[in-house]
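Entry 12.
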Amino acid sequence: MHNTILKEISKIIIPFIQIFGIYVIFHGHLSPGGGFAGGTIIGTSFILYRIVFGKDEARKKFSYKRLMKFMCSALILYGILKGYSFITGGSNLHLPQLPLGKPGNILSGGYLLPLNIAVGMIVSVTVYFFFSLFYEGEI
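Predicted 3D structure (tokens):
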């Protein structure tokens, strides 16, 4: 089946969907949204790519091995950041913290921005994996 119009429109729309997902992740500590919402948006763009361009083309771009490395690195980053904040806050150690900045600026949340980024990475890959498993039975 030839869906030329769908493919050409998707080439234009998918990057905008991904940019919006990144925007939601980066501004999650300032407005509604965050890592989960932004990760879901980005994962949905991966799903759209797979539906429009097919399983083989999606595997070239989103290989299982690459996505697992992406997700595992995000999980490790999340664990390190949460562990560090737990140790420094829970044991009254006076180790260096991220500066909080001015309220309302993008770098004003301390560890919230890196945590939102890690959660967004994890959620986007997980949403895509769930779709792949339920839609075709394999990733």
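Annotation: The chain is about 75% helix and 0% strand. The two ends are 23 Å apart (CA to CA).
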